[in-house]
Amino acid sequence: MTPQSATITGKRQLTIPIDIYNYLGFKQGEKVLITPERDHFKVQSYQALLDSLAGSVKVPKKYQNLTPDQAIEKAKIIHFTQEYGVR
Hints:
Blueprint: H1 18-24, E1 32-37, E2 40-45, H2 46-53, H3 68-84
Antiparallel strand pairs: 1-2
């Protein structure tokens, strides 16, 4: 894969060139993790990262078969209900 240029818009948005997008297997609407590393940053699929960690962390049954966003939302509801009696 050869380097390609892209432009950051006035809204701080960056469009990933299609060749790189396809090469990395990204999907429309997919969440990505952006990690700053000195003078550049790394962009990786959030789901792919979670998949790579699968098995290294035991997932409680109540969070199994949920997307990361669903698990986070459920954890927030449980936390705030237990901690503050708020739902």
